[in-house]
UniProtKB/TrEMBL annotation:
Domain PH: 130-231, 253-355
Zinc recorded as keyword: yes
GO CC field: cytoplasm; plasma membrane
Record organism: Ciona intestinalis (Transparent sea squirt)
PROSITE patterns according to UniProt: ARFGAP (PS50115), PH_DOMAIN (PS50003)
GO function terms (MF aspect): GTPase activator activity; phosphatidylinositol bisphosphate binding; phosphatidylinositol-3,4,5-trisphosphate binding; zinc ion binding
Protein name in UniProt: Zinc finger protein
Keyword Hydrolase carried by entry: no
Chief place of localization: cytoplasm
Length: 369
């Protein structure tokens, strides 16, 4: 009986509808919720256990014993059928997690999906769309490594996110235009599980702010509320943009990051190690990963305008590793990676941008964040 049920479950896992984790789309799920009817990866199974057995009863498809009726329930349901119901009203600005997302984001999504059932009915996510949020977050100082608590106030009617040095301060330290704001979860970068990174335009420069919240849910709530507010404000301010174009901007923050070496405009200066971050059509480079402002920015236009990237350096240049040449109408930028795979990855990412024509979003100036 046990082997027969195990065989049936493993056959269910081979069906196209069940080949990916129900919650993060990881390949090869081997765990299941016997009372919900979904198959999941080992990581998401751990989060399901956190929900409690009154919400989700987790079992291994290979190692646990299954009753006939439980196996029949899994066959009658499965990921596709359950997700049609429980993810029916996921808002356009709310990203479903992927395997590489931070743990806090996966936990937030799974609690929202199964415990709070936010996506099962219309209006379940309305609390993310009020355009108002206020709270205390820990902010990294611009000139130092210390984090200090600051009061943040979101007001979508004003189109701003403000932060104040003191809780009772009348005047904000910074006013951020939401149409230039990009938000990302950054636990690894700032070495805190609830870390956030904001990028926005300030005096024609891309400013970075690094934050964390005391609670994981609060960090992800801020992330989603800021995405929702930016999405609705950009769509309202630039009605010519499609939803897909607005989402492309929201999802372009920190498209790729890493160390490379770079020489100066004369091409004779020594190569210096810089931290690079690809932000939509801007390749920013910093002296250190957590610097508030980049040392410089390389704008990446379209190939038809003379923007190109290739492997290797011009003749006469000594390569410090594996070279990359970015050609613009104004100058060449010479970069070097430590290994071939990184060189290939950077070239592919940059080429995917330069081979695309400028969109309405780019022309509208929304992508300046």
């Amino acid at each position: 009986m046990g082997e027969r049920n195990k065989k049936i479950l493993l056959e269910q896992l081979q069906l196209p509808k069940n080949k990916l984790c129900s919650d993060c789309n990881a390949e090869g799920p081997e765990w299941a919720s016997s009372n919900i009817g979904v198959f999941m990866c080992v990581n998401c199974s751990g989060i399901h256990r956190m929900l409690g057995t009154h919400v989700s009863r987790v079992k291994s498809c290979r190692l646990d014993q299954w009753a006939d009726e439980a196996v029949q329930f899994m066959c009658e349901n499965g990921n596709e059928s359950v997700n049609v119901v429980l993810e029916r009203h996921v808002p356009i600005y709310y990203r479903k997690p992927v395997p590489t997302d931070p743990q806090a984001y996966k936990e937030h999504f799974i609690h929202a999906k199964y415990e709070r059932k936010e996506f099962a009915t219309p209006g379940g996510c309305a609390h993310y769309e009020t355009g108002m949020k206020e709270g205390m977050l820990w902010k990294r100082g611009k000139d130092g490594k210390q984090f200090k608590q600051r009061r943040f106030v979101l007001n979508m009617d004003e189109g701003t996110l403000k932060y104040f040095v003191k809780p009772d301060a009348k005047e904000p330290k910074q006013i951020i235009n939401l149409t230039t704001l990009s938000t990302s979860l950054a636990p690894d970068k700032i070495n805190h599980p609830h870390g956030l990174q904001l990028a926005f335009m300030n005096d024609n420069l891309t400013r970075q702010i690094y934050l964390y919240a005391d609670e994981a849910k609060d960090a992800v709530d801020w992330y989603i509320v800021l995405r929702a507010s930016s999405f609705h404000l950009i769509r309202k301010s630039y009605p010519q943009l499609s939803d897909a174009e607005v989402l492309r901007r929201l999802n372009s923050h920190q498209r790729k990051q890493g160390w490379m070496e770079k020489t100066g405009p004369k091409l004779t200066e020594p190569y210096r190690k810089r931290w690079f971050s690809l932000e939509n059509r801007r390749l920013l480079y910093f002296e250190k990963p957590l610097d508030p402002y980049p040392r410089g920015e390389i704008y990446l236009g379209s190939r038809s305008e003379g923007y190109m990237v290739r492997d290797g350096l011009p003749a006469g240049q000594t390569e410090h590793g594996f070279g990359i040449t970015i050609t613009t109408p104004y100058r060449d930028y010479l970069l070097c990676c430590e290994d071939k795979e990184e060189q290939k990855s950077w070239i592919n990412e940059i080429k995917s941008i330069t081979t695309q024509p400028l969109t309405d979003q780019d022309n509208a100036g929304v992508s300046q964040a």
